[in-house]
Design brief:
Layout: H1 17-44, H2 49-71, H3 79-93, H4 97-110, E1 124-125, H5 126-130, H6 134-143, H7 149-183, H8 188-194, H9 203-227, H10 229-253, H11 270-276, E2 280-281, H12 285-290, H13 297-302, H14 308-317, E3 327-328, H15 333-336, E4 341-343, E5 348-350
Parallel strand pairs: 1-4, 2-3
Antiparallel strand pairs: 4-5
């Protein structure tokens, strides 16, 4: 059995501020420029927009991938620079990056442990699924069909972060009101500072969520005024929906596939989770660039400290140790989409039973 020490990883953890800066410039500037181009093109003919929108989606994918690296503190050498740049990319992606990266870090710590982490769509075990009513079972399968990544992508990027702030603030107000009724204003400040929300874990996460929402909503208002409400939201909704759907689809096939490592906590192994619970997504070179080489996902799970610009080289250097890694292509998405239940008895992902109530 291969061991972690067999892999050559440390040399590829070296970060380069020059390469990171180049990546930010060749990603963010074209993306912003495409928005200007789209506004100009729309004034001439709407038929000019489809190729521009396609490029906007691809560059937004890359913005998200670079934000992901910043969340691991692996893009730049400085933690502070990663936080600052990551925040800016979070505004572009409409996602509060600090809170997102904490959730994502939990995924890395538990990859392949399906008792603790149930994937991107809160997948059920076969036992939990069997306890649902036939209608709920059908709804469960329907909501996890590939087509649902379209509304799911829009919700994930545009709506959910706003709801997080709104629900969190209402929760905080309710907590404060209950305190006022019992203790008055005494220790009110201490109560607020000690409050633990289910929508964010720390005060730093709260400020990240708040500032991200303020910047995102402000950008919506300004761009709606500059471009026109209809044009801006038509473009924005299309780009965010398609990009979000691709985010979800890529993440899904990297972890939900036939034969994926899916164990309970008791016999879970981190290394097997990285090697057998993460696929290698064989993408065309252009798509590898737009996704910042996240297709080398096994290497990424072996060490999230490896920056995206070193993943391919690290994968190549360790190829002889990766024989157990499942290789998938874009055409495998629909086959993988069946594996949305975890069978704890057999430690594997399985499709939904064909007959409701089974």
């Amino acid at each position: 059995m291969v061991k972690t020490s067999d892999f050559v990883l440390a040399p590829y953890m070296q970060r380069s501020d020059r390469r990171a800066t180049t990546q930010i410039l060749n990603t963010v500037l074209p993306y912003l420029g495409l928005w200007v181009l789209a506004a100009k093109a729309a004034s001439i003919s709407l038929w000019l927009l489809p190729p521009i929108v396609a490029l906007m989606v691809l560059f937004l994918l890359r913005c998200f991938s670079l934000m992901h690296d910043c969340g691991h503190y692996s893009l730049f050498r400085s933690k502070g620079v990663n936080r600052g740049v990551g925040f800016g990319l979070g505004v572009i992606n409409s996602i509060p990056p600090y809170a997102w990266s904490r959730d994502h870090a939990y995924h890395h710590k538990t990859n392949g442990d399906w008792q603790r982490y149930r994937g991107i769509a809160d997948f059920l075990s076969t036992e939990e699924f069997a306890q649902l009513s036939p209608l709920a079972q059908r709804l469960y399968g329907l909501l996890r069909q590939p087509i649902m990544t379209l509304p799911g992508g829009f919700f994930y990027l545009v709506i959910q972060p706003r709801l997080t702030l709104v629900f969190g603030v209402f929760e905080l107000i309710g907590h404060g009101w209950a305190h006022l009724k019992t203790d008055g204003v005494r220790n009110l400040g201490t109560m607020f500072s000690a409050h633990r929300s289910k929508y964010w874990q720390t005060q730093a996460e709260f400020w990240d969520v708040l500032l991200n929402n303020l910047c995102v909503v402000a950008s919506w208002v300004l761009l709606s005024y500059a471009m026109g409400l209809g044009l801006f939201w038509s473009l924005y909704a299309t780009v965010m929906t398609l990009a979000g759907a691709i985010f979800i689809g890529v993440f899904f096939v990297q972890h939900n596939f036939e034969g994926a490592y899916a164990h309970s906590t008791a016999d879970w192994d981190y290394l097997r989770g990285a090697i057998e619970g993460s696929s290698y997504l064989d993408l065309p070179p252009l798509l590898k660039w737009f996704t910042a080489d996240i297709s080398y996902h096994t290497i990424h799970h072996l060490s999230e400290k490896i920056p995206n610009y070193n993943l391919a080289a690290c994968h190549q250097a360790n190829r002889h140790l990766l024989s157990e890694v499942t290789t998938l292509g874009l055409g495998d998405l629909f086959h993988c989409s069946k594996f949305i239940l975890w069978d704890a008895a057999t430690n594997q992902l399985v499709p939904v039973p064909t007959k409701p109530g089974v």
